[in-house]
Write a structure and sequence with these properties.
Layout (H helix, E strand, L loop, with lengths): L4 H10 L9 H19 L30 H6 L4 E2 L2 E2 L7
Antiparallel strand pairs: 1-2
Length: 95
């Protein structure tokens, strides 16, 4: 799949990056190369291959799941514009 200059310009605009007009052909070629590589990956037979999250088999350290109140209510409410009785006070939004 080939990306033309107009599509490269639109992608740059959607990504909110400034690309000079002279650099658009290079960007279009790079995007076409990426899509070409993705098409090659689609041709690989992955039947029987389990999905993985990492290339190395490792387990993340786990901690005991304990519910606490954090003991920092005063510090959290100190940043609130309006706090009452230990809670954030917000304007009424439903009549």
């Amino acid at each position: 799949m080939a990306i033309d200059i107009d599509t490269a310009r639109k992608v740059a605009k959607l990504a909110r990056i400034r690309v000079e007009e002279a650099d658009l052909p290079k960007l279009a070629g790079q995007l076409s190369g990426i899509l070409g590589f993705m098409e090659q990956l689609n041709e690989v037979d992955v039947t029987g291959v389990e999905p993985m999250t990492s290339v190395t088999p490792m387990r993340l350290k786990r901690r005991k799941d304990e519910v606490t109140d954090g003991n920092i209510q005063a510090q959290v409410l100190k940043n609130a514009p309006d706090a009452r009785e230990g809670f954030f006070a917000v304007p009424k939004v439903v009549e």
